[in-house]
Amino acid sequence: MNPWVLPLDVWKSMFLIKGFIHFHGYPSRVLVCPKTNRKSPIEYAPRKKKKGRSYLAKKKEKYKKPQCCITHACILLRPYPYREYTMKYILVTGGVISGIGKGIIASSIGTILKSSSLHVTSIKIDPYINIDAGTFSPYEHGEVFVLDDGGEVDLDLGNYERFLDIRLTKDNNLTTGKIYQSVINKERKGDYLGKTVQVVPHITDAIQEWVMRQALIPVDEDGIEPEVCVIELGGTVGDIESMPFIEAFRQFQFKVRKENFCNIHVSLVPQPSATGEQKTKPTQNSVRELRGLGLSPDLVVCRCTTPLDTSVKEKISMFCHVEPQQVICVHDVSSIYRVPILLEEQGVVEYFRNRLDLPIGRQPRRLLMKWKEMADRYDRLLETCSIALVGKYTKFSDSYASVIKSLEHSALAISHRLEIKYIDSADLEPASMLEEPVRYHEAWQKLCSSAGVLVPGGFGVRGTEGKIQAISWARKQKKPFLGVCLGMQLAVIEFSRNVLGWTDANSTEFSPQTNHPVVIDMPEHNPGQMGGTMRLGKRRTIFRSPNSVMQKLYNGNEYVEERHRHRYEVNPELRNEMEAKGLQFVGHDTEGERMEIVELADHPYFVGVQYHPEFTSRPIKPSPPYFGLLLASAGKLTQYLERGCRLSPRDTYSDRSESSSPDTEIAEIKFSMMNHN
User: Fold this and answer.
1) Contact 218, 238 (CB under 8 A)
2) Residues paired with 422 in a beta bridge
3) Residues 503, 494: Cα–Cα separation, whole Å
4) Which residues contact 302 (CB under 8 A, 6 or more apart)?
5) Span 446-464, mean pLDDT?
6) In the sheet where 261-268 sits, what is the strand order?
7) Locate the CTP synthase N-terminal domain: which residues (predicted)?
8) Residue 275 φ then ψ, to 5°
C-alpha cells in the first residue's frame, strides 16, 4: 500500500492523537478518526529523499525513533497492521439472590482476558439512589473502598483492582443517584430543549453514554485504551431499582452490535441437605425473567456447593436456551484464586475468542499460570500465623474486606496460612467484664493467643476504649502491632496516657474539651456536609528517617503514595514530646504538618499509619505495612531486613516437602512479590 502523506494542518483538522502503540519496535502515537474510530500508528516522513535510495529502503536499513510532530511539516499515516479496534462489552447480571459472587466472577473474567494480553477495564453499577458509598454503614454494604481520585465506591471495585492490577476512578462506579443527578443537571441547563424528560429515553441514554465514555478511560500504567469492558450490574434481575439499567442494556446490545456485546448471567443452583439433589428451577425462572426483559444470556454461570452433574447441565441448557458448553459451573473452592482457573478450564476464553472475535492466541497464558501456582501454594500451606483483628464491625467480615485480603496476600507471600481472630473491641472493655463476663474472657483469650494485633480504621466513640486496651497489651507484651487510620490515632492516645502520663489524653472527635488533644480535626472538609467531605484519595507521604522499618519495607523509597480516608490527625504541636519518649513519627505529608507514619523504638514491630495501605495491596504485591506485620508475627522480620528485604528460598517454600524441588521460575515470581512501588 502506498504511503498517504497529509499536510500538518489537514491532519490537525481531521484526526486526534490518542494513546500509544508499539510499531516497528518503537512506541508510536496513535491517530483516531472521530467519525470511524479507526486507529492508525504514525510514522514521520523525511523532509527530503536522498537520491538512489527509496524511503522504504532507508527505513529497513535503520528505523529512527519518531520525534515531536509539531516540528515536522507532514506525517506519514499507515494503516494499523493488526485488527481494527472495537470495544467489547461483557455484562454480568445476577439472579435468585444477591451476594451470589458476581463481583468475584466478573473480576475472574477480567483476569483471564488480561492474561490473554488484552487491556481490560471494569464498571460496577449499583441501583441505589445514593450518589456514592461514602455514607453507608459497614453493616449495610460492607467496607467503603477508596480510589486514587478520592472516590468512595462499592467494595467490588476493590476486587477488580486486586484481580486485574488496575487503577479505577470514581466514574467506574455508576449509581442511580449519579445518573439522575446528571440528567437533572442537564434539564436545568436546558440541554433537552424543553422536552419532557423521562426514564426512556433520557435516563437509559444517559446510562449508555456513561458506559461508552468510561470504557475508553485507560486504567493500566501503560496508558493504553481498554479493549474489553466488564460491567457488573448489582442486585438481582427483577428488582424494581435495576429496571432502567436492564432496559438501557437491552437497547445497548443493538447499538454496539451483537458481536461486541455479551451477557453472562450468574445464578444459584441450591442443593437442599434433605435430598442432596441440585435444583435448577431457580435458575430457569431467573433466566426466563431476564429474557422477558429483552436480554438473553450467552453464558449461564451456576453457583453451587459441588460440581454440577452432567444431567443438571443438560437440563439448564434445555430450559435456558443455551448450549451445554455455555453452562459454566463455579462451585465452592478452597480459595478465590481458583475461580479464574475454574473458568478457564471450562473453555470460557475460547468462547470469548469466538463470540466476540477477540485476538486471543492459543499459547499458555503466563499470568494465569501465576494464579494457578498461587492457588496451589495456598492449598499446601502448613504453618499458621494468627492475627487478632480488633474492630467495631467484626460480626460482618465484609466491613474489613480489603484488610482481610491484605493479610491474606502477606501471609501467602511468607508461605503461612492465615488465621484471623475477630474480636469485638467492646468486649475488651472493663465494663464488659461485669455485663458479659463470658464474652469478656473469650475476647481476651483470643487476643493473648494471637501472634500479632491489628486495629483497623473506624468512626465513632463506641469500642475505642477496648481498642486502646488491646494496643496497650501489644505494646507492653512486645507483640507485633499495626494500627491503621483510627488505629494509629488510638496508639498515640494510649502512648500519651500510659507513657507520657496524660491520663485524659484523647481525640477531639470523642472528647472535644480534653486538656490534652493529641488527635485533632485538621480541616480539609466542609463540616456541613457528610458525603465526600474527608481527606480522600491518594496522597504523598515523605519519610523523615532513613533507618525506619517502614522505609525499608517500602524498598528504601524516599516517599510513598497511599490512599486516605479520614477527618482527624495527630496533633503536630505535641510531636516533640512524644518523640522524646520513643514514639517516632517517621513519615509526614508534603507540608510536614500531618503525621502519617509512627513507629515505637525498642519494639519488634509497633507501627501506625494514617493512610489505608490495604486499598493498594495486590495478590502478587502485598502491602508493606501488612507484610511487615505478618513477618514480625511469624518471627521473620529481622532476618528479612538483614537479607536486604528478601525472603530466603527456604522461607518461601516452607510449604513444600523436603523431596520436592523448587521451581526456579516460580521462585523469581515470589521474590518479585516483595517489590512494591
Assistant:
1) no
2) 389
3) 9
4) 267, 268, 269, 283, 308, 316, 327, 328, 329, 330
5) 92
6) 173-175, 120-126, 228-233, 88-94, 261-268, 299-304, 327-331
7) 88-358
8) -110, -25
CATH number of the domain enclosing 231: 3.40.50.300
Task: Give yes or no: residues 469 and 347 share one domain.
Answer: no
Q: Which helix (H) or strand (E) holds 28?
A: strand 26-32
In the prediction, which pLDDT does 116 show? 87
Catalytic site positions: 485, 612, 614
Query: What confidence tier does 662 reach under pLDDT thresholds 50, 70, 90?
Result: very low
Q: What contacts 276, CB < 8 A, 6 or more positions away? A: none
Q: Verify that 195 and 270 share a domain, yes or no.
A: yes
Name the pLDDT band for 661 (thresholds 50, 70, 90).
very low
Which whole-number Å values give the CA distances from 594 to 61, 572, 598, in the listed order?
Answer: 57, 7, 11
Residue 676 in domain: no
- What is the per-residue pLDDT across 91-102, written as a single tens digit (0 to 9) for each? 999 998 888 889
pLDDT digits (tens, 9 = 90+) for 484-528: 999 999 999 999 999 999 999 999 999 999 999 999 988 765 555
Of the listed ranges 32-46, 192-206, 421-435, 617-631, the least confidently predicted one is: 32-46
Residue 4 main-chain phi, psi, to 5 deg: -115, 110
Q: Whole domain around residue 335: which residue ranges?
A: 88-375
What is the tens place of the pLDDT at every residue in 181-222? Answer: 999 999 999 998 889 999 999 999 999 999 999 999 999 988
Q: Torsions phi, psi of 70, nearest 5?
A: -65, -25
CA distance 244 to 471: 49
Query: What share of residues in the chain are helix, strand, coil (percent, to 5)?
Result: 40, 20, 40
What per-residue confidence (pLDDT) applies to 379? 82
Distance of alpha carbon 337 from alpha carbon 279, whole angstroms: 27
Give me the residues paired with residue 564 across strands. Answer: 537
Identify whether residues 133 and 180 lie together within a single domain.
Answer: yes
Contacts of 149 (CB under 8 A, 6+ apart): 169, 170, 537, 538
3-class DSSP assignment, residue 331? strand
| Domain closes at, from 49, 77, 105 | 77
Considering the domain architecture, whether residues 369 and 400 belong to the same structural domain is answered as no
**Ramachandran bin of 235, using left for φ above 0, alpha for ψ from -120 to 50, beta for the remaining angles:** left
Q: Which helix (H) or strand (E) holds 507?
A: strand 506-507
For range 161-176, the mean pLDDT:
94
Which CATH number goes with the domain that contains 629?
3.40.50.880
